[in-house]
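does this look right to u?? 3,4-dihydroxyphenylalanine version
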Amino acid sequence: MTGHAKLENDLIAQIAGAADEAALEAVRVSALGKKGSVSELLKGLGAMSPEERKEQGAKINALRDRVSAALEKKKSELKEKAIAGKLASEAADVTLPVRAAPAETGRIHPISQVVEELTAIFADMGFSVADGPDVETDFYNFTALNFPAGHPAREMHDTFFFPPDANGERKLLRTHTSPVQIRSMQKQKPPIKIIIPGRTYRSDSDQTHTPMFHQVEGLVIDKKSHLGHLKWILAEFCKAFFEVDDVKMRFRPSFFPFTEPSMEVDIQCDRSGGDIKFGQGNDWLEILGCGMVHPNVLRNCGLDPDEYQGFAWGMGIDRIAMLKYGMPDLRPFFEADVRWIEHYGFRPLDFPTLAGGLST
Ligand code: DAH
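got this back:
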């Protein structure tokens, strides 16, 4: 084999063996670069006789062309191989099942959902939302609400008290949302039209009672609001919340220290079919307490009862959530069991509105 043929064979073998474009480029430089083996051959032509140069020149140029062609061919092969590898590594199997988006797997707790629902209903009637602290003083939870010192109504609440502080004052966990009535009347001049959803606490635990639970309070104070307005508001609320066209209500006389007169409200329901239906039937279910705000409560907030009057009500949120969504036991509400929330929870993007439907 001549020197040229051997060189060509070597180069072709190196080209064929180049694993990637960088290795191929190294082969190209070693052959066709300024100091490459083929370039060196071409440089040697200058020292030859014209005949020899003609013959050798043609041969070396042909060799260079074949090496160039082999380089080009290999280069495009490597390019294609690289693209094919990339495509293979990025391939998506479109037949795989779609993974649920986080917004689809998360769930809204029924209590949050019901708070959103009742806020939407009362906001539509012109109410705004007020809140207050969970840790309260005896004054706001009892005294200002006209619970006399030593009155048995204080005992009825199974209050959680904190140990006395340096001044001997015993703070407590609010037993109802009613203290926020006082805080709101102290802060804001009438007319007042608020709802107060929030956490409340009593030392009690069974299938329908948990030590922490939720209430929503309503308060309307102005110069002429009366029980007729209260009845209308509660009836509209029940129809909207339970999503029925009509609902009968029964107002029974009752006692709360902070209202006079005081009433408990039952709504018509039907328990004959095993589960409970609203807007029909011959059964009654107690859902809330209400009344005209007691003159002493107005006085305790610096309002003149001869000038201002109004009404209030208080309702258990957990209870109406259980009734509406058919949940038999209250305790799992607070057990953080993922299976329960997956079953009873609501989709995060289905925000309740009156126009769009509350629970759809
Ligand atoms: N605070 C009462 C309770 O927890 C509920 C209640 C009754 C609130 C009558 C009111 C009301 O505002 O007027 O038992």
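The longest strand covers residues 259-270. idk if thats expected tbh
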